[in-house]
Amino acid sequence: MSASSAPPPLPEPLGVPVADSHTHLDMQEGTVEEALARAAAVGVTTVVQVGCDIKGSRWAAQTAADHDAVWAAVALHPNEAPRIVLGEPGGGGPRQIPREAGGEVALDDALDEIDALAALPQVRAVGETGLDYFRTGPDGVAAQERSFRAHIEIAKRHGKALVIHDRDAHADVLRILAEEGAPERTVFHCYSGDAEMAEICAAAGYYMSFAGNVTFKNAQPLRDALAVAPRELVLVETDAPFLTPMPYRGRPNAPYLIPITLRAMALVKGLDEDTLAAAVAANTAAAFDY
Q1: Of 100, 126, 193, 244, which is the most buried if we count CB atoms within 10 A?
Q2: Rounded to the nearest 5 degrees, what angle is found at the Cα of 149, between the Cα atoms of 143 and 154?
Q3: Which of 7, 16, 14, 3 is nearest to 260 (CA)?
Q4: Side-by-side strand order, sheet with 186-188
Q5: Residue 132 contacts by C-beta under 8 Å, 6 or more apart in sequence?
Q6: Are β-strands 186-188 and 207-210 bridged in parallel, bridged antiparallel, or unpaired?
Q7: What percent of the chain has pLDDT over 70?
């Protein structure tokens, strides 16, 4: 294994334990137990495992049932809804098998299963759901929006948090939340808006979860947003195995790297790391009701 692809070393442990509010353990190397042990060794004592399709959501719910340190979020990712409705061709990229169009009935069936999973006690959130205009073209927007509205309703009915995936779709995500009425606890995962949007989210009481990309050189708009985000609405996440913080960008991300991102966030906020960690820990517990 080359140095550029090797897992980064463990950072110095945090003095105050925190949670990784959004991770994908099923996409990471090694076992769940190994991932949780490494995380706990540096003060990351809780993780929220997030499903992106039916299989992943079932896995998240089961993993949370099996591990005290794990809570689950279940959903159809915004890009999954158009795949269910419209299908997708085979070949190229990670998906090699053609997928037939299932139409609206197939989407209804998938949403019914998410609804059932959302009722489980170890499932503390419905997400990641929302809109993604980066990977899905105009033909998929209707399916994404219908799925998003359904997830909002599921979250509210079960009293669970809503975890938002918002990529290149800020205005429409905020509009649909306003139209449907957001759940009491709504989290913008991997917050990607600017400072102006952060003020809108803060006014609405939405949590903003920042990932390793807040450390990237070209991410000043994210740091500006973090600077104005109220301390009581800020979370930290990995979105692992993606968005590994600097100086390890491009190498595999995992929950144990949360301290690097949190320390960078503390600098932006002008806080010592223990103060921010205590706030983030309390915020995450409140957001996911654990």
Answers
A1: 126
A2: 120
A3: 14
A4: 18-23, 44-50, 70-74, 123-132, 161-167, 186-188, 207-210, 234-236
A5: 77, 78, 79, 144, 165, 166, 167, 168, 169
A6: parallel
A7: 96
